[in-house]
Amino acid sequence: xxxxxxxxxxxxxxxxxVSGLSFFGGYTEKEVKAVNTNKNRSLNLTTEWIAHxxxxxxxxQKPNGEQTVLVEGxxxxxxxxxxxxxxxxxxxxxxxxxxxxxxxxxxxVTTVSNVATASSYTGKLTMYTNCPNRSVCKTSSGHNLxxxxxxxxxxxxxxxxxxxxxxxxxxxxxxxxSGASVGNFYGIVLDTGGSMQKAWxxxxxxxxxxxxxxxxxxxxxxxxxxxxxxYGF
Length: 233
Fold this sequence. Notes:
The longest helix has 8 residues. It contains 1 helix and 15 strands, in the order βββββββββββββαββ. It is mainly β. The protein folds into 2 domains: 62 residues, no CATH class; 112 residues, Barwin-like endoglucanases. The protein is elongated. It has a 6-stranded mixed barrel. Strands 3-6-7 form a 3-stranded antiparallel β-sheet, with no helix packed on it. The protein has a 3-stranded mixed β-sheet with strand order 4-8-5, with no helix packed on it.
């Protein structure tokens, strides 16, 4: 937006009234003083917008992805003298503040069952993520962990997904896990890993819990109880 050029004589002080259209349809006006040291020249002045910045705040009490504008951002503007590159800020920008929710409601996982324990073990529980940098992250049984790190079993309801030594705990094995950092839960074996196979060959039990990298942290628990409620599907 160009301003009217000021044709000032000698070192007289000129008064430039700068008006800017606000986002609300009104006008603001402010005096900007400019000195012309050359009586034969007009001042070469222009106005320039100053883009507002955005501050993002996260709220774990609001639903994941929900956005609320707490403070509306407003651009500012300045006057630039191209003869000496002098800058005068007429209006400072207002930073926009946006709040984004991060709360994700998790399914109610089975924690109590009247099914008798077939076998009981004490071992290590680790956790692996659902491949945050990939669009697909499937277990060896074909379940896509990007869709959910939970599984709905016809007999045990909603359970967590586990990886284990399949020669000891075939796919579909239901495990009651207690003493873990994430709390007690029921899990189903849908995946495996060479480290868990090797641990079982050495007489140790090691299971891996699938977690959602965006909402959960990974832990390693060394003294966890695994009660087997069902072997396989």
